[in-house]
Amino acid sequence: MIAKAVSTSDAILMTLAGIAYGAPKDIGRYIEEAEPTASDWQLDWLPSVTDTPPNFAFAAHNTSDGTRVVSIRGTYPNPLSSAYWEDGRQDSPFGTMVSWPGNPEAKISAGTATGFENLKMLANGNGITLQAYLATVPDESPVFVTGHSLGGTLAPVLALWFTDLFPGKSISVATYAGLTPGNSSFAELFGPGTALSGRVRRVYNKLDTVPYGWDNVYATHEFYQPEPQGGAVVSALLLATVARLKLGGYDYTAIGDPIPLDGEVQPPSVSCDLVAYVLENLHQHMPDTYLSLLGAPPLPFSILLGTVVSPRKAADPANTQKALGLSPIFVDKA
């Protein structure tokens, strides 16, 4: 019998989701440094990677109650890396959808399918994959699968695979800013009467445009009030995307119980409306923004403008801002 779902706080789960963006060699240290995880959590499984892989995950262990968390990284935040561009392709909703094994009507996007296969192949230095790792976890130990952005898109997919492999385990999902991975038939695999019914939480910032993809894209067309507005360019792109999704019959459907967070629009920091709109999009999507909305402290490192991961204490924030030409909303205070 599967145990009842237990509660692990969003502060902890989002912190672990954010830590996945850090350098793999430093993941264990980040878990020890982050306030929500410092006292009871430790690194449990880490894949062996030489270069930055297009998809990455790690597992952590609560030493007090035995809970495990599998945390999946979102889109790699450095456009100078090939992983950034591969992850970007995985974010796309277009292309030939892939049927879920044993259920041909349940389909996920081609990009999601690629990311899922990449995660399955990750292995630590001893050749232990996520599947082999989870096989060692006692059935009575709760397992959470979490991720931010692309990691949030992949989290329910990986969790569904886990429940198929290990029907006796207690598996739950918490996604942050995730996109819709598949169609309505795929979403039904998480509905009433299934192993994951009531065990998937979809947490999103109401001002973050990303989690509106790909089932509710046009709902973002009047973001942000009173400014910055995306204008005609953004409206045209949104309409074109909606039309292509409709004509393609993709039928993307959100998964899990929605948990909306009330974001706040930041004053524009540049005069160009379109640039200000893009910057606001980035701000609303950042892991630290989600942590702030959840009442949690920031990550032990900074993701500047969504492209640079740096230690918080490595440099004075004002100097970093000046060097990179960043808006103040993207520079974390040490």
TrEMBL record:
Any Pfam family the entry gives: Lipase_3
Residue intervals of the Fungal lipase-type domain: 102-211
SUPFAM superfamilies: alpha/beta-Hydrolases (SSF53474)
Domain of life: Bacteria
Gene Ontology annotations of biological process type: lipid metabolic process
Protein name: Lipase (Class 3)
Species whose genome carries this gene: Roseibium alexandrii (strain DSM 17067 / NCIMB 14079 / DFL-11)
